[in-house]
Amino acid sequence: MDTACTPAYLVSQNSGGLSEKARAAAALLEDCTLCPRRCHVNRMENETGICRTGKKARVSSCHAHFGEEPPLVGTHGSGTIFLTHCSLMCLFCQNWDISHQGWGEDVSDTALAEMMLALQGRGCHNINFVTPTHVVPQILSAVEKAAQKGLTLPLVYNSSGYDRVETLKRLDGVIDIYMPDFKFWDETVAQMTCDAPDYPEVARAALTEMHRQTGDLVTDENGVARRGLIVRHLVMPDDLAGTRQVMRFIAKNISPNTYVNVMSQYRPAGNAGKVPGLDRPLSASEYRSALQAAQEEGLVRFA
Fold this sequence. Notes:
The protein has 11 helices and 10 strands.
């Protein structure tokens, strides 16, 4: 097997490691500490914590998505599986109906595997798990089932960046492409918007671990992502996201060759009006300043 271009989970499957990872992760649901909230609920008995998710993953939609970063979309789209609920719960979330209101349906691990195979059958370039942090065990189980039935696409872990390193290590040798957010640099802003003052510290550690596992983004001859790290950063009004500090950290502590999407699409959504400054859209000049900061801090690859 050519491990240079083979998805990581297939290498793990051949060694028997994928099955072991799935079994070990499933046991964690009995006293859940998957995310930094560490709710300690027994999700195998359908007890729920912050993420409001029990034994089964909940899915809001599954389709080929053409609005993701170009290396993921290619010509046939990114095979996105939008997972319902969230462990971070930003009050300005633009997918409020999914993350806060719980729109979607509970699915078995087998059904989740079938979704992956269906997306592969449609010609998608990858399987893109959106908001996966709280359902890592279910994903591992489903990936094992899908691999046994012929899944061969790279896997994308598309998260808020609020991920425990201990959980991410369970995905080493499974995930090919990590695409986390780095939302805020300041603890006070993280507290106001997500009730998570530890977010900046957690995100720094998470990005470091993700890059350790997969390295800088690598694409094929058609520019389609095969492996590596993509970081998203949503620029916010009044520089509430701390863009320059985030870019400096990525350039100096991760890699100046990190592929970064500096995003301009902030708009007031959800309960954004509760935080001063977040009740208005981003201005064009604020976005230009953010791009300039990223370049001045030494980053060279942008979406």
